[in-house]
Amino acid sequence: TFTSGAVTDATPPSPGATPAPSSAPNPSAPVRMKGNATSDHVLRAETGFSLTSGAFPSACGTEPCPHSEMIFTIGSSDARVETQDTSSADVNTRFGEARVVRTYPAGTTPPANPPPDLAYVTGATSIMHGPPYEFRAVDDVRTTIQDVANPDQPMALQGRIYQHENYGMKVDVSNELPQAEGGFRTPTGATGELEWYLNNTQRDPSSTGPMHMDTGQPILWGMKYSTTTGSSSLNGTTKVNTGALGSSGRRVQSSASFRLPWMYFPRIYAGRNGSDSFSMLTLYDFVGNVNCSSTASPATATATGSWSFSFQYYYDPSNNGRTTTALGQGTVNSNGNDVLNGASVPDALAALKAQNPLIWDGSATNGCCTATSDTYMFDVRTGSNATSFRGYISDWSSNKNVETSVSADGRVTSASINGAFRFEMAGLRQTLTPELPQTGFSVSMGKLSCNAVDNR
User: Fold this and answer.
1) β-bridge pairing 391-398 and 375-378
2) Nearest-CA neighbor of 357 among 398, 397, 393, 316?
3) CB-side neighbour CA atoms (13 Å) of 334
4) CA distance 150 to 382
């Protein structure tokens, strides 16, 4: 059982005397106030499918065969305000979307009018503009399953978005102090449902084969869960607020934040009938936030950002014929050292990659396997693409560089997290012919930004 912290919404500067602006307003500036807060994505994942004469002769007899790609995004929102001669406020929030698009091999001429989308589903989407004032506590609630699949092979690429909603949607321009807010979440209450998943079944079809995957589970998925203190779910917000001149709360402030309680990577088959299957890698309590506050004074203007997540993995430390005997864990963050299995390290992801733990020990698993079927966390290949260490991950990394900027006069601030965590999964048909590297997953998590301008 893991305890999870909460994302704290950005708040205005503490009440009290506000220092005088360090410079006089610029009367020629066309924009008096401007603010923007964006959650580009909490999760963006891509995976591919290829019909080849070797792998699927019934579907494609002669190369070049159709290629397609699924792009799956969860957690997008944008809030913005602007005051020139008049004020405006806008918010655009989308819980998620999944689309399948046609791609073509290098050197292949695509048809004159290729379809822009082979398949598409979208989650809850809310768009608001002010004036006039508008507020919706909960908006565009989705409670039915939304599936998307590859039409070339309907069971090949699969995406699902289940119950979710947008909330706290607000636009207001009263007294020339514009505001825009919006959030997305999976609602609390029901538990045990797969709230979203992304799957690529173009992989080794045998759960006891080279990759030992549990074919009854999707590759990448998030799940709402319950604890003794209640339910928790994916959520995120974007906000832009303003405060009046001459007040302690004078500012243009924008902020974006999110929290992802759980995310699961490939589930590995273990034991009879998969009853002992386990997730190769689990991320939990992934949080991120950026905050920009422009006050026309360098003493109070701020731009900040941070993110963090924890992870766990099962492995065999002794190569003794058992599938897993140990649980490893770590915490990764944007500030300072990480933690890996209780030790402080500069970069936990790099340290674990160097260790490359054994995830599946094939020495004696139900009498099906030998040491030649050992599978490690990271895939290592020679120049000829021969297997040195067969693994699930090609590469991963974190981006600790949170970019922040505050102008000398405190009138312009900005902050951005350009993808906190990146993950590349190995191809899903290792040792089979042909190997299809594009069947792996490319995942980016945690992209946020904010900016604020106060030229009053």
Assistant:
1) parallel
2) 316
3) 24
4) 33
